[in-house]
């Protein structure tokens, strides 16, 4: 029977697909990781990985071992949750993946409050203009703009948020008046790089008959900065605009978008009290912070 330590190393290699990546995650020398994997393969009499120029890929035997190893991981995390006490403050490390707009404008205050309430808890934000891969344990949970389709993931809707056209007051004063969506064809459009939109919910401009994005980025935060520099007009999160002085919403009565944030995690993690308590606190914090930031725009 494999020890938990062997399975822990196996999981890290499977998720990072390299010995060096696993070594960094485990705080272990890559050569030692390689020796431990070789020893595990000798013990069970089967190869678990195939090495290629792209890294370490699971064999059929390795794929079968993944479920067993992840169940052992869940059991160890559950035991830790019991030993640290269910009613006390949270401890350890939790990593959250989130779209960069949410990560930049919503999560900082939420995480600061959670850290104050749980001083022994280490929190990490992975801000990515893509969906974080939970299966490879890039994060413990993720905030997304669409519910997941993978059956091994569970999710809850956290809150809705709104978006509007926005531009700097300086830009609007020096360019043709915008009285309708049709007028946008006479303006520089700021938005996502079309072929790098990682979720259909972010394709705001497809229904506006705009065939050119003059200033594009795969980052919502970069787009906000372009608007601040009077670059053009684009779709912006209402919760981001309090961080963009001089940028104002346009055509609020004619055009708006509503999207949702979802909290996604492994289905098995729902059995872990520590993760469940953190998920509840995180969802409450995100919901409250989005509402607070959007309320700052009331009447504008």
UniProtKB/TrEMBL annotation:
Claim: Metal-binding is one of the keywords in the record: no
Residue ranges that the Swiss-Prot or TrEMBL entry lists as coiled coil: none
HTH lysR-type domain span: 1-59
UniProt keyword terms in alphabetical order: DNA-binding, Transcription, Transcription regulation
Pfam families: HTH_1, LysR_substrate
Gene3D superfamilies: 3.40.190.290, Winged helix-like DNA-binding domain superfamily/Winged helix DNA-binding domain
Domain of life of the organism encoding this protein: Bacteria
Signal peptide (from-to): none
Family membership: Belongs to the LysR transcriptional regulatory family.
Protein name: LysR family transcriptional regulator
Species annotation: Marivita lacus
Origin organism lineage: Bacteria, Pseudomonadati, Pseudomonadota, Alphaproteobacteria, Rhodobacterales
